[in-house]
Design a protein that fits this description.
This protein has a single domain, classed as Rossmann fold, CATH 3.40.50.2020. Helices cover about 25% and strands about 30% of the residues. It contains 3 helices and 10 strands; from the N terminus they run βαβαββββαββββ. It is globular. The structure holds guanosine-5'-monophosphate and magnesium ion (MG). The site of magnesium ion has 5 residues, from β6.
């Protein structure tokens, strides 16, 4: 088992950045909803979709900061990893939520890395005809994407290193660490 290494982003820094992200996201949704004569309190307009399992901690903290009437749907994407930590592909597990047409959809993930996961989801969910579609990630790695995809809201840009904690795992471990840490000795 590779031990977790130095703290890259501490829990207080994460908590404070999430306040900003929630405020920015609520502001964007407020503008979209105002255009259709609705408000953040209008039920049935906003659907938030965490990408399992890495985003669960981030999602839980983010949605509790959002003063928005929202529904939650889950998606699961398996990414295939080569030796240790390199992303080789992504595929959807199970069906997509069926009720996204005309809704303001926000996909929430832990990290934008190769772009395969979020490229796949933006494409597939985009085909369902949402009124708007945004991607919100806690972390974005500074590296070329294998699949071009932009995140609309980003917590932190980080170097191309493998990180664990705050929902991110290594082989099922370390999701519960409160900080984002480097994984000692893991390749980028
Ligand atoms: P992608 O390469 O498709 O952009 O990212 C796929 C998934 O790989 C992410 O949603 C995340 O779950 C996982 N991943 C990517 N980079 C890291 C990392 O540095 N640490 C951990 N623990 N998971 C990562
Ligand atoms: Mg993931």
């Amino acid at each position: 088992m590779i031990p977790p290494g130095d703290v890259l982003i501490g829990q207080r820094e994460i908590a404070s950045r999430i306040v900003d992200l929630a405020r920015d996201l609520a502001g964007e949704l407020r503008r979209d909803l105002a255009e259709e004569g609705a408000s953040l309190d209008t039920p049935g307009r906003v659907v938030m979709i965490p990408v399992l399992s890495g985003s669960i901690i981030f999602f839980a903290d983010l949605v509790r900061r959002l003063p928005v009437a929202l529904a939650t749907e889950l998606v699961s994407v398996s990414s295939y990893r080569g030796a240790t930590t390199e992303s080789l592909g992504a595929s959807l597990e199970g069906a997509l939520p069926g009720n996204l047409a005309g809704k303001h959809v926000v996909i929430v993930d832990d990290i934008l890395d190769s772009g395969r996961t979020l490229g796949l989801l933006r494409g597939r969910i985009g085909e369902l005809g949402p009124a708007s579609l945004r991607i919100c990630v806690l972390l974005r790695k500074e590296r070329p994407r294998d699949v071009p995809v932009e995140a609309d809201l980003v917590g932190f840009d980080i170097p191309d290193v493998f990180v664990v904690g705050y929902g991110l795992d290594y082989d099922g471990h370390y999701r519960n660490l409160p900080d984002v840490r480097l994984l000692e000795g893991a390749g980028g």
